[in-house]
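Retry 2 of 3 after timeout on previous attempt. Resubmitting structure tokens to design endpoint.
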């Protein structure tokens, strides 16, 4: 990572050490929140490699203790967009799926199968991730796509072409977000997640108008929606968040909350009972031994009609949420009908083959 030679002139007035001393470093009860200017200055310095590693670690930990405000997170997203993200938008307007980059460790990763099924139903979908990102460094979109024989080491232009040609596209973090990728070693040394784990999922390299994400608790979903509202570089028309397995964008079986924000409106939330949509089983029923290998095998089997069990039901509902998120279905029921038609007709299998041949 390049080192800044004259930080006092290249950046603003807020080195991380000063922010620790005067703003964020006094503990989770007494720390103050940063202004947008302070947060911007801090992350610009981080991306440039200016802070001492000890100071950087302390700053990340202080932010974790005090919890970032949407204004701070929005400022981080803006700096990331301006200084690091080198995206390329497809002609279509896809649903942006940026699940936790550090992956899953217990349950099957169904986002590829769901995204391809939604694409076959006419809803373009984009996924983006890194490769073994700290702290969990577990399997993510990339590993499943690799197992399926899909090219993942793509420049953003190729990712956009994949999205337009196939309906499902993948953007690889080292290619579109190199500044954040360069923070890998420092993040790995932290041993805990930092705010970078949050904002990298919001990078939106395809310049999509709709974001689909997941959460454990509703207040976190509201914070992400408010982050999009605060980020001057974000131009989201709609954000749909739901309770996902392991923080990923695979819906949690059972009673699950969904939060929806349309530009200019308040955040609406409602509960869905997944058994009413075919997912009448427990989260443990989606566990697999090898996330990447087993998820890829499940994807092929479900999309080709060789599996019609619980995994097929989960894929259909997850696809329905993507279709609903983009507004291609008025409700989840209609989205589910479209997803099942794509699976039953063979359209999903054909789309997967197009993706593998790209």
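Retry 2 succeeded. Sequence:
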């Amino acid at each position: 990572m390049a080192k800044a030679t004259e930080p006092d002139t290249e950046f603003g007035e807020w080195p991380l050490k000063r922010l620790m001393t005067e703003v964020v470093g006094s503990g989770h009860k007494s720390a103050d929140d940063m202004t947008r200017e302070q947060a911007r200055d801090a992350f610009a310095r981080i991306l440039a490699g200016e802070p001492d590693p000890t100071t950087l670690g302390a700053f990340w930990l202080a932010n974790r203790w005090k919890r970032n405000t949407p204004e701070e997170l929005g400022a981080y997203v803006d700096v990331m967009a301006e200084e690091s993200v080198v995206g390329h938008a497809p002609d279509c307007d896809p649903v942006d799926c940026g699940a936790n980059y550090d992956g899953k460790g217990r349950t099957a990763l169904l986002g590829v199968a769901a995204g391809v099924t939604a694409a076959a139903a006419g809803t373009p979908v984009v996924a983006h991730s890194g490769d073994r990102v700290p702290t969990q460094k577990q399997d993510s979109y990339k590993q499943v796509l690799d197992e399926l024989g899909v090219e993942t080491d793509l420049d953003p232009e190729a990712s956009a072409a994949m999205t337009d040609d196939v309906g499902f596209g993948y953007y690889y973090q080292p290619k579109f977000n190199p500044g954040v990728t360069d923070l890998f070693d420092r993040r790995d040394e932290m041993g805990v997640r930092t705010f970078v784990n949050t904002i990298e999922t919001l990078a939106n390299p395809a310049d999509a108008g709709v974001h689909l994400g997941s959460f454990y608790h509703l207040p976190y979903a509201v914070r992400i929606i408010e982050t999009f509202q605060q980020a001057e570089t974000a131009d989201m028309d709609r954000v749909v968040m739901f309770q996902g397995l392991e923080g990923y964008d695979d819906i949690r079986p059972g009673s699950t909350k969904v939060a929806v924000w349309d530009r200019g409106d308040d955040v609406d939330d409602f509960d869905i009972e997944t058994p009413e949509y075919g997912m009448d089983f427990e989260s443990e029923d989606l566990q697999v031994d090898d996330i990447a290998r087993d998820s890829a095998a499940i994807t092929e089997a479900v999309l080709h009609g060789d599996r019609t069990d619980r995994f097929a039901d989960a894929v259909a509902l997850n696809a329905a949420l993507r279709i609903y998120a983009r507004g291609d279905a008025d409700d989840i029921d209609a989205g589910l009908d479209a997803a099942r038609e794509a699976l039953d007709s063979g359209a999903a299998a054909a789309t997967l083959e197009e993706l593998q041949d790209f």
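Attempt log closed. Residues 1-9 have pLDDT under 50 and may be disordered.
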